[in-house]
Amino acid sequence: MLEVQLSFTIVEASFNRLCSIVYHTKLYLNTKRWAIISIATQWAFGIVLTIPIILFNQSNCDQQLWKRIYKYVMVVIIPSIICLMNNMMIFKYARSSTNRIQTSLEGAKNNAQQRQHLSRRDLHLLRHMIVMFCIFVVGWSPIYLYAIIAVQFSFSSIILSMFIISALLSVLVVISNLFLYNHELRRYYREKIYHGH
User: Fold this and answer.
1) Record's Pfam families (predicted)?
2) Contacts of 175 (CB under 8 A, 6+ apart)
3) DSSP helix/strand/coil, 134
4) Which end of the chain is more exposed for a tag (fewer CB within 10 A), N or C?
5) Residues near 138 by Cβ (< 8 Å), separated by ≥ 6?
6) Centroid of chain to Cα 139
7) Burial class (CB in 10 A: 0-12, 13-18, 19+), 82
8) For the chain, domain boundaries
9) What does the alpha-carbon distance between residue 126 and residue 129 come to, in Å, rounded to a whole number?
């Protein structure tokens, strides 16, 4: 079940992003050991979550409704919830960071009014997280909902192809976004490409 691994790769990337933002002073999170643990954990979760499908892998099992619903929950719902929680924690940290900076720059008198409003930075971060969440859910949901509904109704193969392309584009956008918004990763690749090591 490659889809589970792909979804949990995005979850792992969002978790590592959370760790790099919230726990940026923890040097352990920048080591190769941490990277290996993260990758191994993601693969372990993917393997454990596919066990029910492997155990009940019979010739007609692919047609069973529970299996289609299980795939939808494992590929779309659970990763979406985990990514949403990670993003909420990132936003909460960024918001409290903004409040600390505003507190140090402004007097206590103006502070109460300033805390009521989101800063432009916080608003941009919140919009970005909502858009990325929607891209993931809207990109992946149709193909799995199609698999659940297709048992009762027949659809054109063009619709299925559009759903597959939608899911692939969703993954491409999410991965590109993770790369573009990770300044440290971009700097690392720039140094490796331009300096040759």
Assistant:
1) 7tm_1
2) 10, 13
3) helix
4) C
5) 166, 170
6) 13
7) middle
8) 2-195
9) 5
Sign of CA dihedral 68, 69, 70, 72: positive
Q: What is the pLDDT along the chain (197 residues), one digit of tens a residue?
A: 667 777 888 788 788 878 877 887 887 777 888 888 888 988 898 888 888 877 776 655 556 778 888 888 888 888 888 888 888 888 888 778 766 665 555 554 455 454 445 567 667 777 777 888 888 888 888 888 888 887 667 777 888 889 889 988 988 888 788 777 777 777 777 887 777 65
Residue with tokens 């916080």: 122
Contact 81, 51 (CB under 8 A): no
SS3 at position 23: coil
Task: Please tell me the distance from the alpha carbon of residue 39 to that of residue 5, in angstroms, as a whole number.
Answer: 11
Supply the DSSP string of 152-163, one letter for each residue.
TS---HHHHHHH
Which residue is associated with the tokens 């939808």?
A: 72
Q: What are phi and psi of 117, to 5 degrees?
A: -105, 145
Q: Round to whole Å and give the CA distance between 77 and 126.
A: 20
The residue written with tokens 């990337």 in the block is 13
Superfamily of domain 2-195 in the CATH hierarchy:
Rhodopsin 7-helix transmembrane proteins (1.20.1070.10)
